[in-house]
Specification:
- With 225 residues, the chain is an alpha+beta fold.
- The chain contains 5 helices and 7 strands; from the N terminus they run H-H-E-H-E-E-H-E-E-H-E-E.
- The protein folds into 2 domains: 56 residues; 155 residues, 2-Layer Sandwich (Heat Shock Protein 90), CATH 3.30.565.
- The strands form 2 sheets. Strands 2-4-5-7-6 form a 5-stranded mixed sheet, with helices on one face. It has a two-stranded antiparallel sheet with strand order 1-3.
- Helix 1 packs antiparallel against helix 2.
- The longest helix is centred in the first third of the chain and has 30 residues.
Length: 225
């Protein structure tokens, strides 16, 4: 609650100041500019609250009913949902590979996980960049050593990437690497980690193609039922 109060205080203070700017605007141009900033501030506050609610849903609680979920279909749904955001930024967002891959889990939580990964990639990739999403099934069941096939989703972008020394910290709540732009809540990857942990998934962060950008790879135990 202390973290939440701290993170909400800043945007709410900014909103109050922006309301005062609207009231003091001397002409229509100044008023329009102040209203635009006020609207952006409201959107940032709404996004922060949404992220906090998503994180709260991953706190220890009664385990939800698990279902067999097609990870490749979720990826397609989320990419289609976020294409307008990518188009507005002139970012090439698409599916680079899609194999049938099933996992057992909470469908809504898995949608939140994929949405956060793709949304982050689009938001942090500069205009004219590229975001590729792929899903594949890897490995084969081996009863002799308990090995199970994996369902793997990867999101690769051409954005600024994350320095190797900062990658472990991006899963901390409210952490944002210094100089990060655009503004955000610092909760997106914490939510991803919480959902991944509850589904027995592993996460790997690496550089994208050619050593630039960011590649996020998540590997889940595949449901072979």
């Amino acid at each position: 609650m202390a973290y939440a109060a701290h993170e909400l205080r800043t945007p709410l203070t900014a909103l109050h100041l922006q309301m005062e700017m609207v009231a003091r605007a001397g002409n229509e141009a100044e008023r329009a500019d102040a209203l635009e900033k006020l609207s952006s501030g409201v959107q940032r506050a709404i996004r922060l609250v949404e992220q906090m609610l998503s994180l709260a849903r991953q706190e220890p609680r009664i385990e939800p009913a698990r279902a067999r979920v097609a990870l490749n279909e979720i990826a397609r749904e989320i990419v289609a949902e976020l294409v307008p955001l990518a188009d507005a930024k002139n970012t090439d967002l698409g599916i680079s590979g899609s194999q049938p891959a099933f996992v057992r889990g909470d469908p809504e939580a898995l949608r939140t996980l994929v949405r956060n990964l793709v949304d982050n990639a689009v938001r942090y990739t500069p205009a004219g960049g590229r975001v590729d999403v792929s899903v594949e099934r890897s490995g084969a069941a081996d009863a002799s050593n308990g090995q199970r096939p994996r369902a793997v989703i990867s999101v690769v972008d051409t954005g600024p990437g994350i320095p190797p020394e900062a990658r472990a910290r991006v899963f901390d709540r409210f952490y944002r690497p210094p100089g990060t732009s655009p503004p955000g809540s610092g909760l997106g990857m914490a939510i991803v980690k919480a959902i991944a942990d509850s589904h027995g998934a592993s996460i790997a962060l690496d550089s994208g193609a050619g050593g630039s950008g960011l590649a996020v790879t998540m590997s889940f135990p595949a449901d072979v039922s």
